[in-house]
Amino acid sequence: MALNVLVVDDSSVMRSIVIRTLRMSGLELNDVLQAGNGQEALEILGKNWVDLVLLDINMPVMNGMEMIDSIRQIPELADLPMIVVSTESSSTRIDTLKQRGIGFVHKPFTAEMLRNSVIQLTGVTLNETSSDASF
How many CA atoms lie within 13 A of 80 on its CB side? Predict the structure, then answer.
């Protein structure tokens, strides 16, 4: 199953790195959308079908935690798989995310780390032609 993914980070460079890493991971991707903060992400989610959100925590306008809380309040999106990709080092915050069903990948990350998190959270399988992707 090809995934529609939304990547949310206030750094355009980091969004590009996440997207490039996703493409290298062997996962089958369809549309890959981008937002610079949580508010932009909510607007995109209101107009597009998304299977997975990868987001940072520290962003202007609406941070990642506020965005997660907002998404969980929307019945159609309440179960949307989300993975925080962050430099966050607070084990308390990371544990809270995981208890809420949110994946976590620490920056810096590898394609394998990102791929494994996506597979664990969504249950998707690797693209047959890309399953031999080297890391």
Answer: 30
* Token couple for 75: 């019945």
* Predicted local confidence at residue 93, as pLDDT: 87
Task: Say if CB 54 and CB 8 are below 8 A apart.
Answer: yes
Counting Cα atoms < 13 Å in the Cβ hemisphere of 23 gives 10
Task: Say what the pLDDT of residue 127 is.
Answer: 61
pLDDT by residue (tens digit) across 20-75? 999 998 899 999 999 999 999 999 999 999 999 999 998 999 999 999 999 999 99
DSSP 108: S
Using alpha carbons, select from 16, 21, 33 the residue that is nearest to residue 135: 21
pLDDT digits (tens, 9 = 90+) for 87-110: 877 889 889 999 999 999 999 999
The H or E element containing residue 19 is helix 12-24
H helices present in 48-101, as ranges? 64-72, 91-99
SS (H, E, C) 36-51: CCHHHHHHHHHHCCCC
Q: Are 64 and 84 in contact (CB under 8 A)?
A: yes
Separation between Cα atoms, residue 94 and residue 103, nearest integer Å: 9
